[in-house]
Structures are given as C-alpha cells and as structure tokens.
Amino acid sequence: MDPHTSSVGEGGGTRTTDPCSLPASPESISICPENSSSPLNTPNQRQRQLLPPQQLSLPQSQTKSHDHQQQEKGKSQEPPPQENETSAESELPDMVQLSLADCKEFLNDIFNGTPTNNGATIHPEDHPEQSEECSLVSLRMWIMNKDNDGGPQTANRRTQEAKEHLVRKATVAYGITEILRHSHRLEHFSLDPQRFQLDNFAVLLSSVGAADADSQSCRWNNIQGVVMISPSINLRFAKPLLVSENFFDEVEEENEGSQQLPADPYDDLDGLDGLGTHLQVEIDVGGGFILGEDGSMNNHQKKRGDGFWCHTLGVILHELFANEPPFSCNVNLYDSIQEDIPTKGREDDERCTKRPNSEMAGRSKLEYVPLLKLGLPSSISMFVKSLIDCTKADEEGSPIGCQDKGGFPRPYDAYPSLGAASNDLHLLLQYPNRFLFDNTVVATGDTISVGSGLLHLRKHRLYGRHSQMSLLADTYCRVSLTGQSEGVFVSGYSGSGKTKLVESVMEHVALAGGYVIDQKCDQMQQERPLSVIISALNKLPLLILQTNTPQEVELIVEKFTAVFGHNISTLARVLPNITLLIPQLNEGRAHYSENELNFHNLHFLLLLFMRVVSSKERPVMLFLDDLHWSCTAALDLILAILSDRQGSNCLFFVGSYRDDEVRSDHAICGFTDKLSSLNVPAAIVHLDGMTIDELNRLVSDALCLLPNCCRRLSQILYQKTKGNPHFAVSVMRSLVERGLIRYSVRVRRRVWDESKIRDDEGISNNVLHLLSTKMAGMPEIQSALKIASCFGARFSADVVKFLSCVPEYTDIERHLDDVISEGFMELSRADYKFVHDSVQESAYNLIPAEEKNQFHYRLGISIYNNTPAECITNDLIFLITDQINHGNPSLIPPMQLINVAGLNYAAAKISMSSSNFTAARFYLGAAINLLPDGHWSAHYDLSKNLFFLIGNAALAAGHMTEASDAVNVLICNGRCLEDKLGAYHILVLLLHAQNKPKQAYSICLDVLSQLGEEIPASVYLEESISRVCNIQTALANKSNDYLLNMKVMESKTKLSLMQFYSQIHFISYFLKPDSGMMHFYACRLIELCLEYGISKYSARAFNHFAMILGGNTVKDTDGSYRMGKLALQFLSKFNAIDQLPIVYLQYYGYIAVHREPFQACAEMLRQAHEIGLSIGDIPTAVLNGIHYIQKALIAGQKLSVLKEDAAYQGRVIDRHSLLKMSQSYLKNFQETVNALMTKEGSASLGEETDFSHTDFGDAALFHVVFRSFWKGHFSRCNFYAEKYSKLVTEINQVKRVIILFYHGIVSAHLLKHSNSSAKKQVARNALEHVKMSVKESKWNHANKVHLLEAELYSWERKTEKAKHAYNAAIESSRASKFIHEQGLACELAGLHYKGIAKYDTARDFFNQARDCYEEWGSQIKVDYIADQIDMLGGLPHQDCTG
Q: What is the distance between the alpha carbons of residues 834 and 840, in angstroms, rounded to a whole number?
C-alpha cells in the first residue's frame, strides 16, 4: 500500500489521499498553509460563502505586532520553495505568531480562493459534484454558538435538542480523533502544544447550516467535516447524513421515565439503529507532510507513545463536550508535552515554563472535573476519563507489562491506542440509544436492580462467527449455481451458538428466493425419528403458496401431477399440506382403500417430492437442529435425498449436533464419509467458544457500555464460561438477578464489583446446573416446567388444551404464562417453545431420575383416563402413547395393558398411513411386549392385527427377517385360512426376494388348494395352447367397454384366488418357463374375471394373458398389445396404486417393447421402480429398476448414466440384503457397463471360463453375447449367440431379436474372411426375423435391418447398394436416437470403404463413429476406432478405384 493511503474497517471508514498523486477529492477541502505547491492551488477560483469574521475566535496568545504581520504578508510574494528543499520555516509556519486579525484574514483568504501569505487557497471549482456551499467555523465559536442555543421549549423538545447536540459533538469528536490518528504519523510533525488546542480546529458546515448557526431550526446534519489548521489536515464525512430526519422525533415519543431501554430503531436490521450505515470519512493531507517509509512516528514522537496521544485527545474532547478545560486550577494542560520538543518563541510566554514532573503527576487526581458532574452522559464521561487516564504513571500501581509504546504504564480502563478510541466513538454514533445516551431507569436511592431487564441483548447478532457464516453462505451459493445438493454439519457443545449461526444464514437464503424449512430433533420423540423430516417437508407446500405467483403455483401443481400420477394421493397422506396446492385431493381421500396404505416407502416418495419442489432457481434449505437425537433411519432418508442423481434435487442440508452427545457408534459418525463416497460434497463446521474480544463485545452490547469499560468483567466471565455464548448470557442474567450487576442512579450506568464476581461461588461451571439452580428457587412454576419438559423442546398449544381438561393440570396454561414471563419459554405462533434446549434439559432435570418414568406414565395415563374416546384425535394418540411408553411397562396395571397395547396399535396404523414405518415398528413392538400370556386366546383379534401389521411394516422398511418371523407367528397361530392369507402373501414375496422360488411356488399351490382350486401337477403345452386359443376367441368377441364394465368381484375368497394365481404365474416364469403351467395360470385368471367379475387384480390377469399371447408359442402380437392396454385401463379404473409396479413391469418390460420405443419403455419402467419404492413394494421395484437398465442399455443410454443407475440400484438392494436374485441380475449389468467403458472394466462373463460345461440361463447368456459383440470378439459372440438361439424363451422376445441382430452382423462380417454357407444362412435368417420385428416397431428395428442389408451387400461387393444401406442405417439410428448403433453403422461403413480402398471416405466414417462412441461413453470402442484411423495414416489420401 502507498504510504500516503490508508483505510479503516468496521469501526468506521477512513481514507487518506496522497495529494501528490491523486486529484483533490470532490468530498474534501484542503487547507495547506505550509506549502503553496498544493495541488489544490489552481488558476480557476470561485468565491465561497464564509461566516462573518467575528465567528472565528483565536486566543490572544497567538497575536503579534502589526509590523510583524506586514513582514509575514510580504513573504507571500516570494516564490515557493522547490520540491526537494526543506526548512523549518517553509514546512512549519508559526501560527502562534499570528494576530487575531491575521488569523481571520488567513481563513477568509483560504475559503474565498485568495492567496494567503503562505500561498494556500481553497478552490470550490475543484469539487463540481458538491451540491451545496460549505463554510468553515472555528471549533470554539461553533461550540459557543451551540451551547448558547436556547429559548422557550417544551421538556420533550429540550431533551431532543440535547440529544441532537450530543450527536453533533460526538461527530466532531470522531473527526478530531481520526485527524490525530493520521497527524501523529506524519514526518516532521511538530508536537507544538498550540496544535492540540481547540483553536487549531474548525468545523466545516453546509452553507445553510452556517447561515443559520444561531437558529434553533439548525439541524445536526449540517456538519460536513473537521479541519486541523496547522498542519493542514482536512477531513470530510463521506456520508454526512448520519441520522434520519425523524430519528429524534421517534425518540421524543418514548414515554418519559420508562424502566426499559428504548429499542434501537433498526436493532433487527443488520445490527444498526438510527444512524444508518457506518460513518465513513475521507482525509486529505496537505503537501510537505509525508509519512515515513515504514509509516512510523518521527524521532520526536517516538518518545511519546500511544498513551500520550490518547491523553491529548482526552484533553481536547473534554473541552469540546464541556466547553472548559478538564482541570479546575490555572495549570497549563500542555506543559506535559514540552519535554524534548524544539520550540520557537516560547521564552516570551510565561505559560511555556516547564513544571516539575511531581506536580504534573499529581494534578489530574486532584483537579480533574468529571464530565458526569457537568451533566453529560456517563458514556462520554467514562470515555474521556479513560483517555485522560492514559498518562497516569505509577500512582495507581499499573500491572507490569501494561505499557504503551512510549513506556508509560496505563490503568486497565485506559485506551490502548487512538484506533481503539476511534472504534468506540464510532459505536457511540452508530448506536446512540444503546451507548451514547443515558438509559433512564426510575428508582429511589443510589442503585436499582430490575432483573434481567438490565441486559439488552441483540437477538439477531452473532459474535465471532463470521468465517462460519461465510462458509454456509458460500455453500448455498454453490448449490444454487450448480444444482448439486450439498450438506454442512455444525458441531459444538451446548450453547455454542449452532442454532443461531444457521438461523442467521436462513434469513439470507429466504431473501435470495430459496425455500427455508427447519425442524428440531427431540429427545422425547425418538420413537418417531422420521416425523421430524416429514414435519419439515410438510411446510414446503405452504411456502410455495406464499412465495410464488398463482401462475407459478399452477405450473408446480402440473409438475406434481405429471411426476406422481396416481401416486399423488399417497403423497397427500404423507404430507397433508399438499392439499393446499391441490384442494381436490381432500374430496377423494375418504375413498382410499386400506390396501393403498400398505407398503408405503417414505424414502422415494419424499425423494420424488423434492425433485418437483427444488431447483437451481428455488433451492431448498433444510435445517435439522439437534441431530444427535436422530437415528439411522432419519439419516438414511437424508442420504437418499442428497445422493439422488436421477432427478433435479437441489438441497442445501444443514444439521447441527452436540459433540458430547455423539458417541463413536452414533449414526452421524461416518455419515460424511458416506456422502463423500456418493460424490455429495459435505463439510463439518466446529464451533468453539468465543474469544475474549468477541465475548467483550457481547457484554458491551448487553450492558450498554462501551467495550473498553467492560474488558475486565469480560475477562472474569471468560474464565468462568470459556467463551460459551449461552453460558455467558446465563451467567450475566444470574449476576443481574442476584444484584452483582446493578444499575447505579448516581453514575447512570451499570456497575459491578469485580472481586465479588470473581469469587462468586454461585456461578457453576455448567450451564445446566446454573439454570436448574435458578428454577429450583421458583417453586410456583416448577410443576409447569416439569410437565412442559416431558413433551420436548417444542409442543403444540393444543397439548395445553388437552392438559387443561385434566383436573390435575387445570392451571397449566396460567403457569406456562409465568414460565414465559420468566424467560424460560416463548410462544411462537401456535407452539410453546423453550428458548434453548439447555433450558428444556434443566427443566427435565428437575424431575428426579428415579421418578421420571413414573412422571411420564402418570402424565400420559391421566390424559387418557380423563379424555372421552370421541375426543381422542390422532395427535392426542401420539401424545398419550409417547408419554406412557417413556414409563416402565411394570408401572401399567394389568387391567390397562390391553388398552395401552391398543393405543400403540392405533399409533402404528397412523404411522403406516403416513409411511413412517420406523415409528410403526416401534409402536407395534411396544404393543406386542405388553400382550399378556395367552393373548392369542384372550385377545385374538388384537394379536392377529399386530403381527400382520408388523410384518407389513418390516417388509416395507426392508427388515426381511423381522417380517418373516412375524408372519410365521401369525400363520402358526391363525385360526382360519382367511386370517392367514395376508401372512402367506407376505411370505411368498419374501421367499421370492430371497431367490427361493420353489418354496414360494409350493406355498402358492398349497394356499390355492386350500381355497378349493384343483391344480394339475403338469399340463401339456399343446393342451394349454388350446385353452389359450379358446379364451382368446372369447375375448375377441367382447369389446373393451364390455370388459371394463363387467361386475366388480366382491367375494374375498375369489379376490384371494386372483392374488395367489397372479403370484404363482409370476413365479412360474422364473421356475418353469417352458411348461404349460404358465398358460394354465394365465387362463385361469381370465376365467375368474369373466365368471366372478373384475377387480384391481384384473390388471395383472390381463397382462399375464397378454404375455402368453405375445410369446413364442402363440405369437399374437396384436392381441397381446390389446390385452396389455386393457390391463392399464383396469389399473386406472380401480386406482390400484399397489398393483402399478407389477403391472408396469409386465406391460413395459414384456409387452409394449414390441411396439413402443425402447426409450419410452425404459422411462416408464424407471417410474414404476420409483412408485414401487414409494409404496413399499421393494422386490417389484427392484425388478423394474433392473428392466429399466436393460431397456436403456439396448436403447443406447450413455454408459456413465447407466453406471450411476446401476450403482443406485445396488444401494437399494443392499438396504434389503435378502434380494439375492436381484443382486445376481444387477451384477451382470454392472459388469457389462464396466467392460464397455474401459479396458480395465470387468472381464466378460465366461472369458476365463470353460463354457462348454457351463449352463447359462437366458440373462447370463444375453450379457455374454452383448459384451462379446461390442468388444469386437466376434468368434466368441458367434459361439454364444448360437447357444442362446437354442434356448426356448416363451415371452422375452425382445432380447431374442437383439441377439439375432448381433449374430447376423457377426456372421456377415465373418463371411468376408471365409465364405461359409452356414454363416450366410445365419445372416439371412437374422435379416428376415428383424424385418418381421420392423412391422411391430419401425423405431426400434429399422436401423438394424438397414445395417444387416449393408453388411450383406458389402460381402456381395454390391458397392452402390451397400453405400445406400449404410447411409440409411446411420440416418435411421440417428432418428431413433440409438447413438451406439449409429456409431456401429459408421464403424462398419468405414471398414467397408477401407476394404475397397476408399480411404478418405473410410476416414470420415471412422471419425463419425468415434464421435458417437465418445458420446455413448465407450472408451474401448473409441480406442479401437482411433487405431483404425491411425492405420489409415500412411495410406493415400485420395480414394483409389482399384
């Protein structure tokens, strides 16, 4: 930085400008009497209005003889000294030799643009931006004019005028302080005592203010700057309007004698009150005064350290505020600065005589007149006194080391530097209500204690957390810019300010357009861990309504409908506030069947919800406070949302937790590692205690005293609290309440005894103990505190209404009002809330540990016994059940056990309906533990319902073993088949998911037999085909409308038959795909529909039949497509959400792929996967996910996307570890994708295996052929394609077409090297089969026909036909968006043209192929094409014809 330029930061803004390098500031006026070469001296001069000369007052000691005046005037005609010339005379004009008349003329000349005897001028034209004229008034005259203002006024007006006058003087004081800060750093700056008198300063006023200086209407805002006359240092206020015009009017309206400090007018806006922005100043230093190279003081100043300068400032400011010197006796205040200073002409002045140091050392103690006694505020009195105390030497025994730069010891309260004094002055101006004006407190006597009202904390101010705030803000900005979710975890001990830190950022996020939601995890609600996330997300619909236009809301609703479809009703059950956006959902909610509430999977439902709501334009900030009370289930849900890569989630997650509450086995530990492994950025912010300076600022704000006055108290508090913010505030409140901090009427401020506070034993080292001690002294509110603490950190006001109905708690509302008045709680909207979690813990600790279980139980059972059954709402069920469950089961009387078990069952059903399976399992487990011996006999219905529901909940939550155990208990103890059917259904799902199809098949057969069905052991295929044809004919004679409007099946037995026939048909596909049993089961399902009516299971029935029609035996693709479309209509007719995953799997996985684009089928399978997860049908959801990857792979989806999709499916399977069959399927896809992406990818299955002795199934062989083909292993591909052709697959014809296509391409390629009739036949057969598929879907197969034809034409050397066929294949692939097959067509075309020596054309096609493969993401293909291009490098660039 240039030595002439400096700046001051937060405490106010200061700029000093190098006059030698920069033009004069438009907001500065320079007075340069020492150097006529000032850059302000320009030929253009404009007259400026100046106050009459009589308003300038200089002391008589500065006058000289008239002759001497004339001599000095004559010097002004001499040429100015050269730039490099220096002399004491030229640099330091002796102002003390000027007469009063000379001084008047000097100032008049300067400000009227007339050269003075020193050549200094002021030029208004250098400041064209200045909108009003400015004039200079001697500081002493300005003080006298202001102090003499008077006239008849009201008391309020006099108070207002006094405050205005005080602000003006504080403003001038700030200007003088800033000038001294810069002047004492100037080289050759003389310590002449005359420089430090009021007469060496002037006030720069606006012309209006100067003209009306004697008028009462003169406002405070006419102050434009402050000027030091010699040396020339000019300060201008960059923003002179420091206080709003109506600021004092607002203060005037405050009631006189109020016992509370008037609130800062802008206390809640960026910590500012009526002074607006930070006061900034700009300083111009006159020419000839240059800072030393190191910015240090000159040799004379080095003997005078910071203490001297602070003392000098204190003397000046005392006279500024009091209009009289600080000492009452006739002693020259400036004698102390005479020592070692070369002066001129002082021998003639009697007052320049040096006095003994002993006299100087003792006089301030004897003769100082405090400003407080002169009626000034205590803040100004203490401020000036602390400055003057800076020269006190040894009389007060300053501790060792407390010395300024000049070696002078200073008291603790003395200011360390002018910078510190300037910062405090700036605080006075920023917050006058808090720091400048005396706080009025009505009292009698010397002191008064008004409890914690003596503390005035800033609710929205953070102390010492700026870096952490920046990290949070930066993270949000990244989320909004990139659209990638991120997480931040804020850790720290209780009371370290975690919540307040995050809340400070939440306000900015909301202003930036983000959705901000927060929720507090609660120790008392750990049995419902997911409820905290559900409650938080349920706030989003309301935010959407509040922050968006009606048009934007309509678009969001359309997006909800498009994404959720039928599943929107399930979302409304989980997040009821969705009905605020879609009111029509309220109309149909009563008609939802109980089946729709089974198997809800919260993870994916909320993940879909976040995809709709969040975006880069509208990120969601989710803050979960006290995350240490959460569990794995809640964190898993957060993990699922943060790691979602399928949608457009844009989530900024923040979680806070206490370090001391998180053990090594807690779910939080390692959570950030999980996020990192999923490429989700996450950061941990740790909050320690405040530093002592930060704590001092908090204490300063709370006590309305300047920071310098509180430093020693802050040191004591720091020792006791280690800087913990909440603990520090609690300790201060305790000190106030016990009178150790009190208000003194005599000195009009807060006072304390440091020794008593230091030795006080009432301050614990633990905030909980401190709060508990305080609460223990308030027996009248202890009962309310205990009761409130049992409900957690926050609870609804409705709870109080329930409690009020209980005779024991009728006065609870009144007592809670007392708790609020004591500051322990607050009423926020419709909720009661503890002000801090430590307060809730302290209140909870009032209950003895051995009595807590009983207290909870008594609270819950009292509400239950005194509330009529018809009044027990869902919320009340949870409240009662949670309280009882916190107690010990042994406390429950035997006669109440079943009632309490019933309450838990009711709570579980409610949790299941909102997809909170974790909570449901907790309540069901509690209910089962309460069941007495012999409950299957005495309480059969309750037992049956409990075990069936826990089987459902465990299955949906992925706890397969728990689900299996529960349903087996029900099967063993069920009284009839009807009671066991639900358990059998769950068991079949579990066995199939565990890759145990034979056992699942056997159970289905057994159940169907018990339901009266006669099922043959086997069926000949021909017989089953005949049965299929008969039903096919019957259906062909019935219209779709007829089928859709058949009677509805009502028999529970028949519905069970439909359910288990559907299951056994699906299992038989995996177990007995070649037998006639699949046809038998499909036909029986249609027969049941035609005979007994339709149901939600009819969708599956018609899909099963459609799969048979489109299979390899019947081959009726038209009929198959019609039946499949009917299945979707049945699904819609019955709104059968629970059947959607399996129906979509059948239709889009096996039926629609013959007619509809692969990409469209893949997308619908992905949606089915998501819906399956959302309704808890995990096995079917996973199968949909695998089929989605298969169709996307065939359609040429980018391999990198498929890799992420496969990894995501793997994580879903890992959460449900018993899905063994799905794991083996998924592994094939992962290996295939890896093999295609890089050479280092997984080796193809079988490449290191003896295939001749390996029995491959349909799926395994498909992947072997697929990998071999794309890796260029044509011989291997040919071998396994032949093996695949020998498999008899009944229904999966799409894979057969793909394999035939690959086999044909390979055969045609091999024909070019060996003319084999067998291979020729394979290629032609492949072409014929694929042509037949084109009749079903031109989109999916036309490009394959063109490419097969091109390869055959190339082998036959039909060059022109090959050319057109290759071009057609390329164009058709591009149109169908098959990027991989477009690349394949370009590759084969390049090989063709290379073979006929058209190298340039070959090179062009290879380049196109490389681009396609790069887009696909197959590095192995890119490398292969690059090799082909390199091989063409040495060949001719012109196509050859030979």
A: 6
| Average pLDDT of the chain to the nearest whole number | 75
Are the CB atoms for 182 and 307 separated by under 8 Å? no
C-alpha distances (whole Å) from 353 to each of 301, 316, 348 are 21, 21, 10
Which of the pair, 76 or 697, is modelled with greater confidence?
697
For CA atoms 582, 587, 593, 594, the dihedral sign is positive
Per-range mean pLDDT, top range of 22-31, 326-335, 878-887: 878-887
Which of 481, 533, 486, 473 has its CA nearest to residue 675? 486
Beta bridge partners of 280: 13
Burial class of residue 851 in the structure, from the number of CB atoms within 10 Å of its CB (0-12 exposed, 13-18 middle, 19+ buried): exposed
Encode 97-140 in three state secondary structure. HCCHHHHHHHHHHHHCCCCCCCCCCCCHHHCCCCCCCEEEEEHH
The contacts of residue 1331 (CB under 8 Å, 6+ apart) are 1345
Contact 403, 333 (CB under 8 A): no
The amino acid at residue 125 is: E
Q: Measured between alpha carbons, how far is 620 from 639 in angstroms, rounded to an integer?
A: 15
Three-state secondary-structure class, residue 306: helix
Instruction: Provide the token pair at 813.
Output: 């509302």
Task: Give residue 1410's pLDDT band: very low, low, confident or very high (50, 70, 90).
Answer: very high
Instruction: Report which residue type is found at 1127.
Output: A
1275 CB neighbour count, 10 Å cutoff: 9
Q: Which residues are registered as beta bridge partners of 620?
A: 515, 651
Give the residues across from 492 on adjacent strands: 658, 687
- Do 1366 and 1394 meet the contact criterion of CB atoms below 8 Å apart? no
- Which H or E run includes 948? helix 940-957
CB distance 1351 to 1305 below 8 Å = yes
**DSSP-derived secondary structure letter, 1149:** I
Question: Taking a C-beta distance cutoff of 8 angstroms, is the pair 615, 445 a contact?
Answer: no
- Which of 328-342, 355-369, 1074-1088 shows the lowest per-residue confidence on average (mean pLDDT)? 328-342
Question: Which residues contact residue 656 at a Cβ distance below 8 angstroms, ignoring those fewer than 6 apart?
Answer: 489, 490, 491, 492, 498, 499, 502, 623, 624, 625, 626, 627
Residue 670 to residue 624: CA distance in whole angstroms: 18
The pLDDT tens digits for 530-583 are 778 888 888 999 999 989 998 999 999 988 888 887 678 778 878 888 888 888
Lowest mean pLDDT, pick from 601-615, 1185-1199, 1221-1235: 601-615
Q: What is the pTM of this model?
A: 0.59
pLDDT, tens digit (0-9, with 9 covering 90-100), for 715-734: 888 888 888 888 888 888 88
Quote the DSSP letter at residue 436.
I
1004: enclosing H helix or E strand: helix 997-1010
What is the residue type of 309?
Answer: W
Question: Do 1114 and 1072 contact (CB within 8 A), yes or no?
Answer: no
User: CA 1156, CA 1175: separation in Å to the nearest integer?
Assistant: 27
C-beta of residue 1401 within 8 angstroms of C-beta of residue 1439: yes
Give me 490's structure tokens: 């804020």
For residue 1036 the two structure tokens come to 């062909």
Element (H, E) at 1077: helix 1077-1092
Give Cβ neighbours of residue 1410 (< 8 Å, ≥ 6 apart). Answer: 1383, 1422, 1425, 1426, 1429
CA 1379 to mean position of chain CA atoms: 39
In this prediction, residues 1159-1163 reach a mean pLDDT of: 92
Report pLDDT digits (tens) over 952-1008: 888 877 788 889 999 999 999 999 999 999 999 999 988 887 778 889 999 999 999
The region that residue 722 occupies, defined by phi over 0 for left and psi between -120 and 50 for alpha, beta otherwise, is: left
Q: List the structure tokens of 1168.
A: 């089915």
- Is the bond into 541 cis (omega within 30 degrees of 0)? no
Predicted local distance difference test score (pLDDT) of residue 1105: 93
With beta carbons less than 8 A apart as the criterion, state whether 1297 and 1330 touch: yes
